[in-house]
Amino acid sequence: MAKSKKKKLPLAYKPIGFALGWTSGTVAGLAFQKTWKVIRHEDNAPDALDRDRRWGEILLAAAIQGAIFAVVRSAVDRAGAKAIERSTGVWPAPDKGGRD
Fold first, then answer.
1. Membrane-spanning regions, if any (predicted)?
2. Which runs of consecutive H residues, i.e. helices, occur in the chain?
3. If you compute the radius of gyration of the chain from its CA atoms, what whole number of angstroms results?
4. pLDDT of 100 strictly over 60
5. Which residues contact 62 (CB under 8 A, 6 or more apart)?
6. What is this structure's pTM?
7. Which residue has the higher pLDDT, 56 or 11?
8. From CA 50, how far away is CA 100, in angstroms rounded?
9. How many other C-beta atoms are found inside a 10 Å radius of the C-beta of residue 57?
10. Scanning 67, 75, 88, 97, which has its CA 20 to 30 A from the CA of 81?
C-alpha cells in the first residue's frame, strides 16, 4: 500500500509544484526589483538588450537576479515538500536525485 501511495504522490504533487513554482517566480521578481532599487537607486534593472547599459551593469543585474531566484525557489520548494510530507507522511520526490 505504501509503495503505490509513494508512486502516485509525485504525480499528484505536480500541480502543487507548478503553483509553488509560479508563486516563487513572482516573489523572486518582486524581491529583485526591490533589491535593485536599493543597490542602484533605479526603478528598472538593465536588460541584456539595453543599448545604453554597460556589460558590468547587465551582468551584475543578472547575477543578483539569478541568486535571488534560486534562493526563493529553493525555499518555496522545500517548504512545499515539507508540508506535503507532514500532511501525507510521504516525501513528494523520488528517493534519488532532485528536481533537475
1. 12-32
2. 2-40, 55-88
3. 18
4. no
5. 48
6. 0.77
7. 56
8. 31
9. 15
10. 67
Residues 18-68: pLDDT tens digits? 888 899 999 999 999 999 999 999 999 998 999 999 999 999 999 999 999
Q: Hey, what's the cell of 7? A: 508512486
CA–CA distance from 48 to each of 14, 23, 30, 59, 96 (Å)? 32, 24, 19, 8, 37
Is the Cβ–Cβ distance between 9 and 88 less than 8 Å?
A: yes
CA pair distance 9, 16, nearest whole angstrom: 11
Backbone angles phi, psi at 4, to 5 degrees: -70, -35
Contacts of 72 (CB under 8 A, 6+ apart): 24, 27, 28, 31
In the structure grid, which three cell numbers stand for residue 33, read together?
A: 526589483
